[in-house]
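Let us work through a complete example step by step.
Step 1: write down the sequence.
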Amino acid sequence: MNFERDEFLSRELHEECGVFAIYNNTDAASLSYFGLHALQHRGQEAAGIAASDCGKEINCYKGKGLLAEVFNNDIIKGLPGKNAIGHVRYSKADANQLENVQPIMVRSHTNSFAVAHNGQIVNAPELKNELEVSGSIFQGVSDSELLAHLIQVEKGDFTTKIMKACEKFEGAFAFVILTEDAVYAIRDKNGLRPLALARLSDGGYCVSSETCAFDIVGATYIRDIRPGEIVRIDEEGLHAFQYTSEIQYKMCAMEYIYFARPDSNIDGINVHTARRLSGRALARVEDKEADIVIGVPDSSISAAIGFSEESGLPYEIGLIKNRYVGRTFIQPTQKQRERGVRMKLSAVKSIVKGKRVFMIDDSIVRGTTSKRIVQLLKEAGATEVHVRIASAPLTNPCFYGVDTSTYDELISARLNHDELCKFIGADSLHFMKVESMGEAFGTKNLCTSCFDGKYCTSLFSYGEILESEKKR
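Step 2: predict the structure and record it as tokens.
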């Protein structure tokens, strides 16, 4: 995230990233590469890996681009050691300088360590200002750097320093930290961002933003890191510490709806199953008739399958995705997003021509993508396109790491239902209700602030800007 307040009103504020860690494996950097590859959907703008062997120097390599563009075999070989952490990143277009690419390295006379982070700390500007007044100098704008500075100024052993630092944070975070002899995994007290622990087949350990990365490295899931918990992994095994007792489970609903891979399990819930059940819930309140059900690739496919199951209508592949184009939802500019939609999807004319179509999508953010997809289907000969969204309308900005923007850029905050339906060119439009999402996912432990404005933390000075934007 960016600490500067005037950038709140720019097009992109939030980021969604992936973190990964390995402890006690001779191929730690290589396994980290494969683990990050499984998390590539969480960040496609930059990547980095830091590696260490007990008592030896930490080496770090990072760069802009996809994982395969940043790393090759020679670079991986240049990161020796049995322990490693890694990061894949999304960011604002103006916050993608190399100094913000993670892991963030700290080298001091007391110790060396590397930090990587997923989420957004809402009181980061306040904490940064305090540290700068005390003499700290920041190179970039990432929350990982903020944690690094706080660790340096706190008193006590390294674990105590982390605990004291995390006590000061409000918001969403999943941190992994690499020292010369240990790996740490830390999750925010609200459980907003996912983080899970696994055991490697040779006795080492693995930490990941999503469980889908465990299979590729041959790790067996143990459990999720708990809200407000720090897990230290060292030569003596696992050590768990609670840095606060004021915890709650408020997993970001958008992890289930959009961000996570369908083969991941988050807080005990399979993502594919959650999406499929949301599709079934959508179909149960349906009052329109159609011939086929199609999903917008990829995150909407599971919901479309559920809709098809419940409605009894055939599920068809009506849209084809170009696998070499990144997600349009998180492209840096509107022009790039619109061009990305044209490159990204094609309608299958032989499937949709002459058909009434239920088009299932996971969400509508700015509306331009939905508008273009409806247009594609009608150009391909669909006689009716009924858009069904497997989530509630996005009406509020997020301050916890999901890439939704200001009120002005959230189309459901600006247009009512009928206006939005007309804007995207659909024959009908239907969203889920907020409470229906939790029922479908099988949990009430969700953060739904981007849908209902019920934020689970104080927003600090962001709240003041939010109120002023409401009055505009």
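Step 3: interpret the result. Residues 269-455 form a domain with the Rossmann fold fold (CATH 3.40.50.2020).
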